[in-house]
């Protein structure tokens, strides 16, 4: 089992606390089989709390993603780390006080038999305007990397640019 963290960073203007809009957000990831080292050709979705049964003999408990490698036929699985009050499934991202975009962990996944090698920011995200506290609940990224809007109450433009992510060992 390998514990992998998805870290993200972005240039954010007048917004903070970026995270997927709901807990049951489906994260789209690129996987690689650790037996034959082949990458799965398409992105696959993994959702916290899916409670899928593992079919492999001897495997216990439930998981959030089960796959069979189309090349070597081995089964692999991945599961989000159980949330705690301090570390929810999705940890909100904010830039540092002095406005620097730094890598921060968004979520942690236990991977068995697979490596996670990519991701895409699909679906709906949420963030909060730092001036007025206005919540933006329908953030969708153009090209998976950019979002712009206007904070009416704070009378400032808001944006998220250069969103990127990477998987690291947690
Ligand atoms: Zn394989």
TrEMBL record:
One of its GO terms (molecular function) is zinc ion binding. The keyword NADP does not apply. The keyword Nucleotide-binding does not apply. It holds the Pfam family CXXC_Zn-b_euk. Keywords: Metal-binding, Zinc. Belongs to the UPF0587 family. This is DUF866-domain-containing protein.
């Amino acid at each position: 089992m390998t514990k992998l963290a998805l870290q993200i960073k972005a240039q954010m203007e007048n917004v903070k606390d970026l995270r997927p809009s709901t807990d049951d957000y489906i994260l789209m990831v690129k996987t690689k089989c650790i037996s034959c080292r082949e990458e799965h050709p398409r992105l696959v979705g993994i959702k916290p709390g899916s409670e899928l049964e593992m079919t492999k003999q001897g495997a216990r408990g439930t998981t959030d993603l089960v796959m069979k490698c189309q090349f070597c036929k081995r089964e692999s699985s991945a599961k989000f780390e159980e949330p705690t009050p301090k570390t929810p499934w999705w940890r909100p991202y904010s830039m540092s006080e002095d406005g620097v975009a730094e890598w921060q962990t968004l979520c942690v996944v236990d991977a068995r038999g697979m490596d996670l090698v990519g991701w895409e920011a699909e679906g709906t995200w949420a963030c909060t305007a730092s001036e007025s506290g206005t919540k933006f609940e329908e953030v969708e990224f153009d090209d998976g990397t950019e979002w712009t809007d206007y904070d009416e109450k704070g009378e400032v433009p808001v944006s998220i640019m250069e969103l990127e992510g990477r998987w690291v060992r947690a």
